[in-house]
Design brief:
The structure is a homodimer of 293-residue chains. Chain A has 293 residues and is an alpha/beta fold. Chain A has two domains: 171 residues, Rossmann fold; 109 residues, 6-phosphogluconate dehydrogenase C-terminal fold (Orthogonal Bundle), CATH 1.10.3660. Helices cover 49% and strands 13% of the residues of chain A. In chain A, helix 6 crosses helix 9.
């Protein structure tokens, strides 16, 4: 499949699973321009070069490229360092920036605070894709296929630029949707960051009790429900810190639901418990997208 | 595959997914004896009869069978009613009993309290298999294949009888393991009942906040982490009540882990958060059975 993109050059900063899957996606869709990549780990850059995923070996990127998209695929709290390095090293012309970070308000603030000059050319995005695995070796050309990519435009962005970023993700197979950064952060605190916290807490409590026997008698639910506790710790540390207030609120609300169930079990009224479980089951079964039924 | 079992007759009480999968398993392994089934829903019994899964149409089970295994595949708290009905209706000779309930101490107490005369012939078992689906139509001949079946012998059971029940589950493809009933209940409160409670609480809190938009922006984790909230409400009401004290203790311990993570996020110390997440990831990755890696 040949896919048109709106850039002559694409520079991906950070060649982990998210950045690596961008590279594979561009390669498999035969991006006609040139792809460059940078990573703090020179071995990873060598690998990406050997796999023909990036044009440059270490540090061989022309500093005066024209018509460039820079994609920051780094952990959320590394965005400042990554921006500083790119802006000090290159003098690109006609450049747009985007990112893949899981928290958007903190990235927006980072640009406003330290790189106001690129603010209008920076269109925030967040591909809703990933797994508990990490690193270039976990990358896949189909990671973004049929997944949602949230675009969080701000008032300084031009409509034509926003469309180019949407076209990038759609070109990689994603469905795009626009949300304000603050709405995005509050929403994903509930539907993504909270499940990760629950997964960490479950693995912590089970391991504290059962140690090396943790999975010995499990029928599968425990493996499923702790899966994302195997995610990249640095990425998730960043998300928790960057989205602190929304995450803490989500945990508090979850604790209220947990307390409600505890009280119902303590009370031991069969009808109340069945009604509660039934109403939750009904909500889920009714709302779940067809594909997951 | 023809599999030898140690009974001439097998009567399954309760033809939901668990009982139905026993019937399919016996059929596919060409059990040489006769299989009977009872369910409170006469339509389900008709279906099972039409599918050649059970020999009897409604109420046509000889009352004086010899060499019989009775398997109670009913929700945990229905065991008393089911036992009363079987014992009042039939006068079997050379009979063993087992069950499939998810909580074992409460079943043992029910037998001790009301049917002491069959106590020594009742070998408790719990196949660690199931899904969020329920009913005869969700049954599968391979449900017990390569799954664990926990046997909880008590001091009145004879070794030869315990072996016959182990042989039943092994004949259906399971791996058997013996555990005392109280150890079983404490263990599964942590590794199975707790994940279900978490799933209910997560679905409850997300639905309270997001209503019909609950899954609209999810990347998959939310679907995964609420999957078992679609389980059978009556079955899980019974489990929560029957295993109340172990379940409440498991929730309390989980809440402590959740509070620990909340405090770390509030404090916002990056090193402490990374260390905590890393240590949890290490435990999981180290312990997880190879098949799930």
């Amino acid at each position: 499949m040949i896919q048109n993109f709106d850039f002559k050059n694409i520079l991906v900063i950070g060649l982990g699973m998210i950045g690596g899957s961008l590279l594979y996606g561009l390669q498999s869709r035969r991006f006609k321009g040139t792809v460059y990549g940078l990573d703090t780990d020179s071995e990873v850059m060598k690998s990406a070069h050997n796999l023909n995923l990036i044009n440059n070996a270490i540090d061989e990127i022309p500093t005066n490229l024209n018509e460039v998209l820079v994609i920051f695929a780094v952990p959320t709290l590394s965005i400042n360092t990554a921006m500083a390095e790119v802006l000090s090293k290159f003098e690109f012309k006609n450049v747009l920036y985007t990112d893949t970070c899981s928290v958007k308000s903190s990235v927006l603030e980072a640009i406003q605070d330290t790189n106001q000059n690129i603010l209008n050319n920076f269109i925030l995005s967040h591909p809703i894709a990933g797994s508990e695995k990490s690193g270039l070796s976990a990358s896949s050309e189909s990671l973004y296929d049929k997944r949602l990519a949230i675009i969080c435009p701000h008032e300084g962005n031009k409509e034509e630029d926003i469309k180019k970023i949407e076209n990038l993700w759609e070109g990689l197979g994603s469905i795009t949707k626009r949300l304000p950064a603050s709405v995005h952060d509050d929403l994903f605190a509930k539907t993504s960051h909270l499940p990760h916290i629950i997964s960490y807490a479950l693995m912590d409590t089970v391991f504290n009790d059962l140690k090396e026997d943790s999975f010995l008698h499990s029928g599968g639910s425990l493996e499923d429900y702790t899966r994302i506790a195997s995610s990249d710790p640095v990425m998730w540390k960043d998300i928790m810190i960057a989205n602190k207030s929304s995450v803490l609120e989500a945990i508090d609300n979850f604790s209220l639901s947990l307390d409600k169930i505890s009280s119902l079990i303590k009370e031991g009224n069969p009808d109340k418990l069945v009604n509660f479980f039934s109403s939750i089951k009904t909500s889920r079964d009714m709302l779940l997208p067809e594909k997951n039924k």
